[in-house]
Give the backbone structure.
Amino acid sequence: MTLSHSPKQNRILAALPAADYARLLPDLELVNIPVGEGIYEPDIRIIHLYFSIDCIIARLYELESGVSAKTSLTGNEGMVGISYLLGSESTAARAVVLSGGNDFRIKAPLLKKEFEGGGDLQRLLLRLTQALIIQTEQIAIGNRHHTIERRLCHFLLMILDRLSGNELHITHEQVSIFLGVRRESITMAAQKLEITGAIQYRRDHLTIVNRQELEEIAGENYTVVSKEYECLLEYRS
């Protein structure tokens, strides 16, 4: 563990009472995970659970047809692998690193034992589960009823909320995979956002110029999810 990386940079761990945090601290291992790496694969036993610092991890379902789509994003506001704590030792989806960075991981059985003891950790992670359900519901609604431009705005805002600054390193191809649409459709939607002045896009480097414009286009899908995470992060024992 380096001085520049602390488990308390994860907002779940930071919200724990001192005694609970101290119990977990010796078992937390700092790892750096590059973009594109899969930390979980379908039907493979979960070994570690991950508390992100500056890494963003997406749950990604891949169908036999080759089509894929994300169902949730997790950054430093949460933990990846919560299904293990709820009784499933594997997952039906891949967990893929969307934005590379640092995580603190812990052996899954150790955290499950702590979780089953109740208390603040359990309450925080159950609230996180509720927030993930809301996020997944809103993504599903967007996939069914909203334009690609609106879905792209929602996606960019969810990433932006989990990073410092207003710049993203992401390609149209990567976005198309996570939204489950053609790359050409993402290119067209991004061009529209550039015309409105909401973003600038240059060679896999995207800058958010007008966040308010993105929020207006994303609409209630983003607002509902954002409020749910605000409630989670306001939790104090």
Q: What stands out?
A: The radius of gyration is 18 Å. Residues 119-145 form the longest helix (27 residues).
